[in-house]
Specification:
7 helices, Immunoglobulin-like, binds dinuclear copper ion, alpha+beta, 5-stranded mixed β-sheet, Cytochrome Bc1 Complex, Chain D, domain 2, about 325 residues
Length: about 325
């Protein structure tokens, strides 16, 4: 990073400039509103100080027009900023469909990341320039928060839940990754870096290192090893729901509810199988809580996704 004084870290993602504009607008608006009030306080204090010769006759007891103006003009301005910010916020959670997924597991006190091809990293994330990247994140212990100041993104990483973030890097180089939620003794040391590379370099990097099975292939292996296929395979004699192309499918449950299958639903079905029992089936599946790591849950979900995802957007 270059020297000199900067109020903000360099802006290195497609959304960073937009967030900076929004922040500037909010600062200006509250700055003008705050300073105007202070200036009037000072002005009136001096003008109407005890003993001053200000004209105190004919003071109006009410001024409807001025009251309406100072109520509705600021109200409209602040609502406009609210609308702008809310719009940006929704964009932050709607990843582009071509975004490259990366799976993130946080723990005290490190970041574990896995790419689709099975390449794993710790406290480091390599991504290609100009390519939207979508992070799917969870924690295996306490709440952490994935924070990249240069990209202007931050999202809590919560145990038992999947949260997502997405960004498009617009500058090559290395950028700080911090944990932004106090998570215990070494919270401050839970740091890493995002390395943005040219797409060719990134492709070479992805292929380098030990050959690994892709995350979905690893998931298939786990699916067999944990015995899931014993009941859920189409040709199995045990009566269990077919998981083929499950993601995005509408599932009807025994208690009359229905839902659209997403990652969280699959995760819950593995760890809390009694929670959402599919209509027409007995609640006989044992819980796998404590037996499958967060990384392996991601892999199993990606295996199921590889059999078909009817509605890629369902999983946002
Ligand atoms: Cu993890 Cu703070």
């Amino acid at each position: 990073m270059n020297g000199g004084f900067h109020l903000l870290p360099p802006a290195a993602s497609a959304a960073a400039g937009r967030f900076d504009h929004l922040m500037l607008a909010v600062l200006l608006l509250i700055g003008i509103a705050g300073l105007s009030v202070m200036a009037l306080i000072v002005y009136f204090s001096i003008r109407y100080r005890k003993g001053s010769r200000a004209d105190r006759t004919h003071a109006p007891s009410q001024g409807r027009r001025i009251e309406e103006e100072w109520t509705f003009i600021p109200l409209l301005l602040f609502l406009a900023v609210f609308g702008w910010a809310a719009w940006e916020y929704t964009l932050l959670y709607r990843a582009r469909p071509d975004a490259m997924p990366v799976f993130v597991v946080a723990r005290q006190w490190m970041w574990k990341l896995e790419h689709v091809n099975g390449r794993r990293e710790i406290d480091e994330l390599h991504v290609p320039l100009g390519q939207p990247v979508r992070l799917v994140m969870t924690s295996q212990d306490v709440i952490h928060s994935f924070y990249v100041p240069a990209f202007r993104i931050k999202q809590d990483v919560v145990p038992g839940r999947y949260t997502t973030l997405w960004f498009t890097p617009t500058k090559t180089g290395e950028f700080h990754l911090f944990c932004a939620e106090y998570c215990g003794t070494d919270h401050a040391a839970m740091r890493g870096r995002i390395v943005v590379m040219h797409p060719d370099e990134f492709a070479a990097w992805m292929q380098s290192g030990q050959a690994q099975p892709g995350i979905a292939a690893r998931g298939f292996e786990l699916f067999r090893r944990h015995g899931c296929s014993g009941c859920h395979a189409a040709q199995s004699s045990v009566h269990a729901p077919d998981l083929n192309a499950l993601l995005g499918r509408t599932v009807h449950l025994q208690d009359g509810r229905s839902l659209v299958a997403d990652s969280a639903y699959i995760r819950d079905s593995i760890l809390l199988p009694k929670k959402d029992v599919v209509a027409g089936y007995e609640p006989v599946m044992p819980s796998f809580a404590g037996q499958i790591s967060e990384e392996d849950l991601f892999a199993i979900i990606e295996y199921i996704r590889s059999t078909g995802d009817r509605h890629a957007r369902a999983d946002q």
